[in-house]
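User: Run a structure prediction on this.
Assistant: Running it now.
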Amino acid sequence: MNQSTRMLCAAVVVGAHGVRGQVKVKSFLEDPSDLNAYGPLTDEKGEQSFELDITGSAKGSLICKIDGVTDRNRAEAIKGLKLFIDRDRLPEIAEDDEFYAEDLVGVSVVDSDGNQTGVVNAVFDFGAGDILEVTLSKTGKNELFPFTKEIFPKIDLAGREVTLVQPDVILSQDEDGNVH
């Protein structure tokens, strides 16, 4: 799938709000309230559209009404629903050092000498900053790395490559499985 036709996850329904079908939605956009700015949101395949009416906010989430969701049971049933937008609806990024996190998926990972060490498999945000999941070439295992300037000092999206400086291991595990 080429970059201009990818679906990007813009938000997720994180729970019900009240008894009239409103839901709490976590937006992944720079300005969370821009959810309606890029056209209708869809499911991952683009088959089902969702019209959102943002009615407020609470604790980092937007409070929204979604067409067809009229009671708490239906609102609870869609918890975890990911809401997507088509990549080409997003504005172009003018800054060289800015990009959409999804643009990193599939990018080659190299060490500071330029040797291929893996591929970016996913980008996560668990609340304390972005984490890149890298599938390492040598082992085939997925490893998680904080997405910081120290660990990923060079990002070349045009060349589809990021440089990884592996952090020193701080924790160790003894033969009994105890972490030190």
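The chain has a mean pLDDT of 85.
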